[in-house]
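Collaborator request log, item 7. Partner lab (contact: R.S.) asked for a structural prediction of Sugar ABC transporter permease to inform their binding assays.
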Amino acid sequence: MASGAEATPLAVGVPADGMALRLRRRLRRARIPLFCYVALLPVLALFLYVRIIPIGFGFLLSFYKWNLISPRKPFVGFDNYVTLMSDENFLLALKNTTIYSFSTVALSTVLALPLAVFLSRPGRLSAFYQTVYFLPVITPLVPMSIAWKWIYDYNYGILNYGLSLVGLPAVPWLTDPDIALWALVIMGVWKVIGYNLVLFLVGIRNIPHEYLEAAALDGASDWQRFWRITLPLLKPILLYVLVTATINAYNVFTQVYVMTLGSQSAPGQAVRMLVLDIYTNGFQFFRMGYASAEAVTLTLIVLGLTVVQFGLVRNDPAKEA
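Returned to partner:
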């Protein structure tokens, strides 16, 4: 029996030393991912505590009539969501946010893409223009909103002063309910266009130059090269730009909050946005359950739009081939 037991490793064709060596190699390979997981544990724990748990707690709050100053917090089920569908303030905020988001995303993308194509060509001032366009992205939003508030001022704003130089009447940019939302759209496009421009530039410069040269030798025009080569290869960047821009646009708050305060600002209802409505219900009227239902609805809307964008602008090399 002993001799048979000793011959077992040889019977399967693997020496005992070889099995030990393989085991040591596997353990050595497992050390690297194990070390990575252990090193990431503090970060994952912080992310869980700061992000995941609050999201879950907010979703739970949406099923309660959770008032910060009331000791009773009864379970109301889907009543908060049903009330949302008949709340004029919420429906107006949803309408304004949707108009703002679609306009800002569309204009910033349509303007940034041709600018990126133009600045991708070699030129001495290309870096200068990139810096100029990117400056609004890194500018703090609160002081920038205050500056734009004065730019839009009816009596002293530089924008109306420029209109007066060409004989045009002053425009009540922030006090007219029909214009205030579009004034915010202009500012939003100005804020984000530089970020989209840099992303498109990175994508264009990573396109192999041989593709464009081959198309030029085949007689393709500049438009044909852009439409048939540049744009299809930019699909991953375009998708990223659309998704991030949509998420940021639907979460607009700071400029709306700052620019709707004071005598030279628009009426609150004219530029009421979803996040502003959530803030008002949660931290001014202490209706945390109702505000949580609004936040969950906003999350579902953004998630749905993201899925649609992935379906419309997906990069499937197999189908394109």
